[in-house]
Fold this sequence. Notes:
Shape: globular
Order of helices and strands: EEHEHHHEHEHHEH
Largest sheet: 6 strands, parallel
Helix content: 40-55%
Oligomer: single chain
Mean pLDDT: 76
Strand content: 5-15%
Number of helices: 8
Low-confidence stretches: 9-27
Number of strands: 6
Radius of gyration: 15 Å
Amino acid sequence: SVRHAATFGAPRAPEQAASGSMQATPRPTVLRRQQARQLGVDFLDSDAEIESAAGMSISDIFVTEGEAAFREREASVVAQCLAEHSGVLSLGGGAVLREETRRALEGHRVVWLKVSLSDAASRVGMNTARPLLLGNVRGTLGKMLEQRNPVYESVATDIVDTSGRSQRQVIDAVVQLVREPVREEGR
């Protein structure tokens, strides 16, 4: 039974599902929702929960309150979701940068949807809804991947490389992983 399958990854694409990823994994909310459905568990998206509680979009939170305030909201929502939710929890790419969130994820299944810079850049394009990617998108993504990948790897119990894979292939890989016991070494 899947108590939690938290997922995160690279900068997010507009929709992400059942895992964590950066802003450019393949259609994240859709993927994670489909993964949860296949596993027969509930699905929550931490960004949607933040937006609902705040009454505004993530972009608007960044503009009106700043990134630090957003990260505070995010840490609180993720901790609450982990405590109250059973199933798949989709995390934004920056969620695991906070130590308190990394600690909260200990003991949970965490799947990182890994993406290459090339795929990330082509998936995100010139999406203006991503406040951290304004300007030189490819350069910013490259720096984010360089900074975040070691953190992602340290938190992940499992890694699924999404580069060059279809949504269906990513969903199948995550579902297969989550149905197996967590591997302690040799990820």
